[in-house]
Amino acid sequence: MVYGVCVAKWVSVALRVSSPYIPGGALHGHDYKVRVCVEGGLGGDNKVVDHLELLAQLEKCLRSINYRYLNEVLGTQNPTAELLAKKIADCLSGYAATRNTRIALVEVCTASELCSYYRAVVDNVDAPHYK
Fold this sequence. Notes:
elongated
């Protein structure tokens, strides 16, 4: 059986993106709610991982992102919530491996609930057939 644990934390960033909806790629900011879910079996304590431990790991990853210029953090001229979700998943992957779990989902949502996410594909079982 697979069980899951999710935690969430807010992060604030400044960024510039290429978009027809933002005139001239204007500098602007976002508050993102970052939600992380890990999956795995139950340990001896009947938990996948402790919620507070996972939250502490997420907070550690967000320290290098919070109140920063996202273009620099992600190293791109067009930073997206999708890329931010992947960066957070990468940051948490070592922690997940030490707990015999996997990062099931990292979701990044604006305050107006526009969301993007990153989900790792496992053994091509979940592989979408996008072109």
